[in-house]
Amino acid sequence: MKRSVMKVMLVLLTASWIGSGAADAEKIRFCTFNWPVNEFLRGMEKLGQLNEFTLIHDKFEACVYKLKKGQADIMAGITLFEFIASRQEAETANIVFIAVTDYSAGGDAIILRPEIKSASDLKGKTLGVQADSVSIQFLNLYLEKNGMSLNDIRIAHIPVENVAKAYASGTSLAGIAGGNSPVSDEALNAGGRIVATSKDFPEKIIDGFAVNLESLQKNRDVYKAFLKKWFAAVRDPAVLEKSAQDLKVPSEEFEKWLEIVYIYQDAAASLQMFPKAKEVTKELQAFFKTKPASIPGGAARLFGKEPLNTDSWFDDSLLKELVKEQ
């Protein structure tokens, strides 16, 4: 759903983060966005655990851009899809993945019209999806599971925040791929039915922290200390409560938001995911190698890329140090 942000969160987040992007040259620039897992950063900040950082709250795509262009030093919640797509651009060879934080476990959904009885009925039909986002990876996973490919369908390239509305506004779309409820509520209210979610594809839509390599080399101790605090924070009821207070929602509601993700609870669990993350990286590179016929021009830039050696794109050294110290 990346990142098809939750409508309920959008309204709440805007007011509480105004001014949070102010530049602070003495601090590490930390870009985050409204993805449930990232909201632990709110509680951490309120509890004085992020004093070395300036938090910049923005949209997902803006955070990716800032990280690529050196306007942010670290990003929370970047998907492997966007990380790999960014690394394949020559000017972004300075970004490394330092920790796996979670994977989508229901945050993304495939919604089809009632008359579409099976995946095979989609052949030749048009689906709405933001084709240059992780939603296209999710749609590809769904089609492959059902013996099909993106070449068997047509794609309407629609921004993720508008895809449910586009479904509800007419009958030209046989279905959509994007965020689950409440992002998709307009489509569901228009008769759409969920046929698959990212929970059906565990450990495929992986999120984590990506860091500017120069910043990592300069601030290793700071990043190591942050990761230690992070893994403590996701298990700390006090951080959850502070985050909910800052979001102006009950703790119980915030906990419900977290049900759409699987969160890694400690450095050891995150470290154990690195081989899987590298495996998914190879799958993504194979996916990017050949452009499916259905991919429209605007998203074509992601494809036609030869696989690269990705070993240097992942740095698990901080996690290894933390595990050794446990």
| Structural class label | alpha/beta
Total count of domains: 2
| Oligomer designation | single chain
Considering DSSP H and I runs of 4 or more, what fraction of the residues is helical? 25-40%
Radius of gyration from CA coordinates: 19 Å
CATH top-level class of the largest domain? Alpha Beta
> Mind telling me which CATH architecture of the largest domain this is?
3-Layer(aba) Sandwich
CATH homologous superfamily heading of the largest domain: Periplasmic binding protein-like II
Distance between the termini: 34 Å
Biggest sheet, spatial arrangement of strands: 2-1-3-10-4-11
Overall body shape: globular
* Tally of DSSP helical segments: 14
In percent terms, what proportion of residues is strand? 15-25%
Low-confidence stretches: 4-23
Average the pLDDT over all residues and give the rounded result: 91
The tally of strands reads 11
The major sheet is characterized as: 6 strands, mixed
CATH topology of the largest domain: D-Maltodextrin-Binding Protein, domain 2
* H/E series: HEHEHEHEEEHEHEHEEHHHHEHHH
What would the keywords be for this entry?
alpha/beta, 18% strand, 6-stranded mixed β-sheet, 326 residues, D-Maltodextrin-Binding Protein, domain 2, 2 domains, 11 strands, 14 helices, globular, 5-stranded mixed β-sheet
